[in-house]
Every structure is written in C-alpha cells, then in structure tokens.
Amino acid sequence: LRRAKLAMVLCVIGNLAILGFFKYTDFLIGTVNGLLGGQLSLLHIALPIGISFYTFQALGYTIDVYRGDIYAEKNFFRYALFVSFFPQLVAGPIERSKNLLKQLAVPKKCSYDNLREGLLLMLWGFFLKIVVADRLALFVDTVYGQDYQNFGGVIVIIATVFFAIQIYCDFGGYSSIAMGAAKMLGIDLMENFNTPYLSMSTAEFWRRWHISLSTWFRDYVYIPLGGNRKGKVRKYLNLIITFGASGLWHGA
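User: That's the sequence. What structure does it adopt?
Assistant: Structure tokens below.
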C-alpha cells in the first residue's frame, strides 16, 4: 500500500510538473520580474496542444487506479489511445477511465445508427460554433475591444449578454462536435453541458456547466480536501482552493 501511494504521488507530481513547465514558466518569470524589477528573459515555450486536458485525464486515471476504481491498463497502446483520444483531445470533455478506457477495450463495428447520430451531433455543434458563436463574436469583440465609454450603456449590456451566449455556444458547440465524432467511432463520451443557463442556483450552474471539469475538481480536489464535512470555515477554504486551482488551470 505504501509503494502504491508513493507511485501515485510521483505520477501526480510528474504530470503537474510537466503541465507547470509548459504552461506557467513564462508566467512565473514575468511575475518575478514585475515584483522584483528583474530582467529575466522569457523562455517562450511552445504549449503542446491539449496539454491541460490530457494531463487531467492522465491524473484521473492514476488516482482511480490507486483508489481501486479502475484496473491498471497493461496495454500501453490502449492507454495511449485513452490519453490522446483525438475527438476530445484539445478541448474536452475530460473523460474518466471508468467510461472511456473500458469502451476502448471492446472492439467496435461500423454502425449506421452511430454514424447518423454522430453526424447530427457534429452538425449541431458546427451550428452552435460557426453560425451562433462566431457571429456574436463580431459584435462582442468590437465592443469589448474599445473603451466602453465609446458606446451607450445599452450596447454594453447587449454585448455582455451576447458574450454569455457566445462562450456557451463556442464551448458547448465544440463538445457536441467531439461527442459526435466519437459516436461515429462507436464511443460514447460524457455530456459536458446541460442547459446551464436554466439553472436555479450557482451550485446547480456548476453542475451543468463544463460538467467534466467541474466534476473532476469535485472528485479529485474538493472532496479529498474534506469537502463540506469539516465545518463551514473549512468548507469555504476548500471552495477557494478548488476554484483557485480551476482558475489557474484555465490560464495564468
């Protein structure tokens, strides 16, 4: 058990170190320069495509194996396919090993129903992304890209509402495209958005917005920290840590 825990900790540290190096090195150098007036040169490290998503997917697998929630995959190529599964590689959803890895272990056959359903999902995703999100972005970027005083208050409010729709259709559209592409290959990915703007509370919103990421932080950060089981002060501290980590994950 001690060796298993050590292996898990080393894997977690290794994955986070790789993510930190590529995503946050220049951010830290810039911060140090700003605080101390230093002249350290930025490294301008090229960010590997999708590193945030497949790092978390690999972390989830490691922790699941340690907890006994999933078997340790002995086939390296199947594990590599799980981590780098193309449809959801660059923008999610962040899949769980209990769902995706088990599906990859079963041979798939070409199915008319899967092709039809997957194509319809992809078309819906393209509509959300190209027809809705990209059109609204023209208006939003024009307003947000200038001093708001150049526009009337009504225009700024409209741009803000449009941005809320834009970001949902952009990300939700891509998730639908990913789910559709995977469905055509016979793979069912988890739903990533569930009409979040119809939520009745903030808590419900985060259960329905970017579900794969929200549940990831809940299961692998918030609950292991103690969740809401150790009093109100600890609960709010755990929330701050969880959302702080989520913010850093989204970008420095």
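The two ends are 36 Å apart (CA to CA).
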